[in-house]
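ARCHIVE CARD
CATEGORY: sequence design from structure
SOURCE FIELD: tokenized fold
FIELD CONTENT:
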């Protein structure tokens, strides 16, 4: 079952906007881990595709920081092993001028079942979101009036939540329309979360992710021309930044407590879902 707040709501899409919509209307998502050559061929296909020029003339890559939350018994992490995976996270976006704590950020609850997805978000300064996560009830009326607010409030009130994983990456948008968004992430890094906002003190890097992560998000059916462009790519339907990052964090914790497993300190370079499964089998207690 998809998130309640998505029912009957359709709005213009765009993850990096001045004020992202409360509900992301793009219903499907496919993920790929391409090589550099495969990505370049894909980019050429997008550039030659039928999208309007302004849907492809997009800003350069910017940095995105994400902090994931979970409970003491890892209900969000364990959901990744079931039919429907959920993630609760705060996303902070690099702006044209680094405005630090005043920069609007997003508190998001995302849910995926196969390629189906739903996501609701609250957009506010990081200090406001931190108070909300901490249990404050005196939030401003505009935030409380958001269609996403009841859904996210319920998630926050179910159990005690704490930050468990930080990520950063450089995101470039290759195509964006109300029905389609194509992005590529580079320099994906996992770390233990320390602080929100600037100045950042999250220097405890745990692992490096895949060199390239390509995401195709769309409403309705995937356009035929884009479906053909995806055919030669290596699809990673089970790949999740949250899942792989959490595996890296927990492996790192074991490596610190048990020095004889020093190999676990090595970064997870070119991580794939098969690697995550292999590691989980080798260390099932993680």
């Amino acid at each position: 079952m998809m998130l309640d707040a998505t029912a009957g709501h359709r709005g213009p899409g765009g993850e990096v906007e001045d004020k992202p919509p409360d509900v992301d209307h793009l219903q499907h998502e496919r993920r790929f881990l391409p090589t550099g050559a495969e990505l370049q061929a894909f980019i050429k296909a997008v550039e030659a595709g039928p999208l309007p020029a302004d849907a492809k003339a997009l800003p350069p890559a910017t940095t995105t920081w994400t902090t994931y939350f979970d409970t003491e018994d890892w209900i969000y992490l364990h959901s990744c092993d079931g039919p429907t995976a959920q993630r609760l996270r705060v996303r902070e976006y690099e702006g044209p001028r680094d405005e630090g704590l005043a920069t609007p950020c997003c508190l998001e609850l995302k849910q995926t079942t196969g390629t189906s997805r739903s996501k609701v978000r609250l957009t506010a300064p990081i200090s406001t979101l931190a108070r909300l996560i901490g249990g404050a009830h005196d939030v401003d009326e505009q935030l409380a009036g958001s269609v996403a607010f009841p859904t996210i409030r319920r998630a926050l009130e179910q159990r005690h939540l704490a930050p468990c994983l930080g990520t950063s990456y450089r995101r470039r948008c290759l195509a964006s329309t109300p029905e389609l968004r194509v992005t590529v992430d580079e320099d994906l890094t996992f770390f233990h979360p320390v602080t929100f906002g600037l100045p950042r003190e999250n220097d405890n890097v745990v692992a490096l992710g895949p060199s390239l992560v390509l995401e195709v998000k769309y409403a309705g059916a995937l356009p035929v021309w884009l479906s053909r462009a995806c055919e030669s790519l290596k699809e990673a339907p089970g790949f999740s930044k949250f899942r792989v990052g959490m595996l890296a964090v927990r492996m790192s914790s074991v490596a610190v407590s048990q020095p004889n497993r020093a190999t676990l300190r090595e970064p997870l370079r070119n991580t794939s879902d098969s690697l995550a499964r292999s590691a989980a089998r080798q260390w099932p207690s993680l």
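CARD ANNOTATION: The first strand starts at residue 23 and ends at 24. Helices lie at 36-48, 75-79, 126-133, 141-144, 149-158, 224-230, 241-257, 273-282.
SHELF: design records, drawer C
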